[in-house]
Amino acid sequence: MIDAALLPFQRRLLAPLANAIAARGITADQVTLAGFGIGLLALPALAFGQFGLALVCILANRMFDGLDGAIARINRPTDRGAFLDIALDFVFYALMPLGFALADPAQNALAAAVLIAAFVGTGSSFLAFAAIAGQRGLRPEAYPTKGIYYLGGLTEGAETIGVFVAMCLVPSAFPLLALVFASACAITTMTRWWQGWHAFSERIGKLDRPV
Hints:
Elements: H1 3-23, H2 28-40, H3 42-47, H4 51-74, H5 79-103, H6 105-135, H7 157-169, H8 174-199
């Protein structure tokens, strides 16, 4: 919901570091893979109840996620980079609820399963929309530099990370936070279904109209 508003600030913040990294010959794909590796460390940290360490890994993963895009714009964006970015992000998102489920199966497993199912809805609707929009050669006005069609919604990247941060800070609140956020994800999924139904009909071809 707020990703588009945050993008200009994020780019200004990361630009000096991205320039320094690119000058050393480090590629965007290497940063993407490194960030994913760091993000994976959050899973065992969560499973063993090391929520502070997990939070550090989550935030580091997100910083790397911003850096890889900034480095790609300095060099040259590639289809492989766009693919890696979105594919690894969705795996990372799904692993965080799993980590909480492993930490306390009795309390967290059901809520984690519901949240992962909700992520399947948001992720599949996002990618299905992007695939068809790509076939039509369409680009989103709000995210002109994205490698694929980026369809917004109530729950985007910033909201997801905000919830993960809250879960790490107050682990006992995970079930409530997970169920509330899963409900918000369900709303996002349904609005994307509605947008796809109308955007890809024979009568409507304009994707960036208000919803």
